[in-house]
Design a protein that fits this description.
This protein has 181 residues and is mainly alpha-helical. The chain has 4 helices and no strands.
């Protein structure tokens, strides 16, 4: 920070220069007043810049998180129906669980985003659009997470059905061979 407490010391000549000394004194007072005004303006501008930096940090984090959600959403959109064979189905399930874990791991950063928003709201005349952005984001995040979890349930169901089919086939095979013996 800049030290705005500068004092001008004016020495008054001992004889006959009192008018000149008064002029110098007035000029020094005016200069000090202008300096104080400059320092106040500078402090105001520094505060404004600090607030703008907080806004940028908020939107940078928001953008990173939104991109991660969009990536998960896009991954989900290109998924094929559950495979009918065990290995591809297992692979699909693993990938889906990886996406769920990746999206769920964003929760601490989502909380940080909310904290940054709270900090930004503390300022008078905080922009209202912050509320819309965070609400839209949290709803989008939850929607994609819900869709991923629904996909996981669908894949688990397919996997269970596949296992049941194999078990039934094995039982049928065993029964046929017992009768044939």
């Amino acid at each position: 920070f800049i030290d705005c407490n500068i004092c001008l010391v004016v020495s008054v000549p001992p004889e006959g220069g009192s008018r000149r000394a008064d002029d110098i004194q007035k000029a020094a007072e005016e200069l000090n007043t202008r300096w104080d005004g400059f320092c106040a303006l500078l402090a105001e501008r520094l505060e404004w810049l600090a607030y703008q930096s907080k806004i940028l940090a908020f939107y940078n984090l928001w953008q990173q998180l939104e991109q991660a959600v969009v990536n998960s959403e896009n991954w989900l959109k290109v998924q094929q129906p559950p495979a009918s064979e065990p290995e591809p189905l297992k692979h699909q399930l693993e990938r889906c669980r990886d996406e769920i874990a990746r999206l769920s791991s964003l929760e601490p950063q989502v909380n940080l985003l909310k904290e940054k928003l709270k900090s930004l709201r503390e300022k008078e005349n905080a922009p209202v659009f912050f509320d819309a952005d965070i609400t839209d984001f949290t709803q989008h995040h939850q929607q994609v997470l819900d869709e991923l979890q629904a996909r996981e349930r669908q894949l688990v169901l397919g996997e269970n059905m596949e296992q049941d089919t194999h078990t039934m086939q094995a039982c049928t095979y065993t029964q046929k061979h017992r009768k044939g013996s």
